[in-house]
Amino acid sequence: MQKPTVQIGKKSVGEGERIFIIAEIGINHNGSLEIAKKLIDGAVLAGCDAVKFQKRTPELCVPRDQQDVMRDTPWGRMTYLEYRYMVEFGEKEYADIDRHCRERGINWFASCWDEESVDFIEKFNPVCYKVPSAALTNNELLMKKRQTGKPMIVSTGMSTENEIDSAMTLLGRESILVAHSTSTYPCPAEELNLKMIQTLKQKFPECPVGYSGHETGLAPTWAAVAMGATFVERHITLDRAMWGSDQAASVEIGGLIRLVQNIRDIEKAVGDGIKRVYESELGPRKRLRQVREKVTA
Predict the structure, then answer these.
(1) How many domains does the chain have?
(2) Range of 75's domain?
(3) pLDDT per residue as tens digits for the range 201-223
(4) pTM for the full model?
(5) Which domain CATH number covers 70?
């Protein structure tokens, strides 16, 4: 069977390909274009393949009973709906982001949480779309993204097996990537369940399977690569102590550099599973096997 691959921009993602590394900026920019650009630059410095944002239409995504709830924010006390607007970029900001990413040579795309947001992001012709775990059961939104004709990364956090099956039945398999995920921020190690990567590979052999991590630390993401993830996604931040619900489960730029460097080492080290004697072993083999033969003689 041919190994599944999907083209995202100029990159081929799948078995036997270089691990596709996504730096999830999300809303960790806190509504600041300057912070967003610094995070993009950090992802470029680390060697990531893409950055991802989140796009919502607040009045559609915030439940009615929560819109007027007051909360303390870095901008003062305001309603939750007002806060959600503070962390959303508009057309001017995304045009600047699009230009900055093109200048820096990195792909960008977004998780759109409502259909209007898909129409908005489509203006910028992103390389793909992400289906956030929270939207896996929103069939209308799934089909809205499907109709763009772009590749889709489907995240499976907070979802049952039946819900995943239903979404994949609706979407089909063409140009679909599946991400194992647990939607806890940050996620404890005992709930990461990395063996699901292999389960998803067996269940959806036509689709590249990857990992979207929300843990603290880097080791589980490295383990996911060793266990066969063909792409990985981690939230990134300038400072994990910054305001925001995703910051604590994010990776600072220094950690992101280490994450990418070691992923590249791991993908070299995994190999192809075919036993061979390497040229570098011939000298030691000749020397040490002769010693053994003399001793036993």
Answers:
(1) 1
(2) 5-296
(3) 999 999 999 999 999 999 999 99
(4) 0.94
(5) 3.20.20.70
